[in-house]
Description:
CATH topology of the largest domain: TIM Barrel
Radius of gyration: 22 Å
Helix content: 25-40%
CATH architecture of the largest domain: Alpha-Beta Barrel
Strand content: 15-25%
Number of helices: 11
Number of strands: 19
Distance between the termini: 38 Å
Structural class: alpha/beta
Amino acid sequence: MDDRLLQSLETPCVVIDLNIARANIRKMQEEANACACALRPHIKTHKMPMFAKWQIEAGAAGITCAKVSEAEIMADSGIDDIFIAYPLVGELRISRAIALSRRVKRLILGIDSYAGAATLSAAAARAGERLEVRLEIDTGRRRTGVSPTEAADLAARVVALPCINLTGIFTFKSLMSAGERVTDIGAAAEEEAALMADAAEAIRGAGVDIADISAGSTPTGTAVARSGLVNEIRPGTYIFNDYLTFLEGHNAMGDIAARIYATVVSVSGSRAVIDGGSKTFPMDTALNSPPFFIPSYAMFTGRDDLALTRLNEEHGMIDSLSGKPTGLTVGQIIELIPPHICPAINMHNSVYLFENGTLRREPVAARGALF
């Protein structure tokens, strides 16, 4: 980016290189197609209908959301095949999901308990609707999802409910193996695919005919698809990539489409302060922790000697790791790459889109979609 464009930025801000994003979309779609596996990308990374449409135009089967409010925003833009991959609990969410199901061609809801499924069934019956659901399997992440050993029994109970159509199973595991965070993509993907295949076999053995086995995150998606044991993958971060996906071996640094720009507002010896703090940079990646021991809340382009070590709301404190002066100057605009781009996008009302030497704004339409 030339200096003229750089100086036009209102910092702190996110800038997305559209050529890199397009290439990332095309690459993942080609990899899924080569495996005869459906790609249903998660929109949690970009949260913008424009990018979701690009993914569908490239060949995606539909999209994945985490919240009903996200799905509503995508449906408002004409996207009509949506999976809400999160246990749908609560009267407000369920009533809105039922209303949404009447507006789109296909809406799939997530469940991970009999209580949740029974509540959905009762609400659907009152509304005169039938809801498609998938059962979430816990393959080692230890958040939502039923144990693989309990999946068949739960599926048999769920399929007997009226107004519920159980069509598949899904999971989110990422780089976990044997219950621990790992760096071996192959091992994590192999375990993920095998666990899902075993759960599907047990469910079918219990007399429940499911069609879809959905798995795969950005680092594991391609390897899980190549296993031939699943028929859908749901990566999200791949559209932009970030420093964590780089460390995980998914992409090169040149494949990172989104950068954060900030302005230096104060300099004192080996410390500098920028205008982006905890309202700009996510803090969900613990510093100096296994397996990657990331030393900074953002990485500096071309400056391995600097670390963003402390964040207040409006202040980002940069330390020189050598103890020498940072070499930064007041008013200087610097480029940073966050470890995890998804929550970073959610912190901004809009982003800059960079293409062919120009910048334009795009609202993050699903930012803050909480319910």
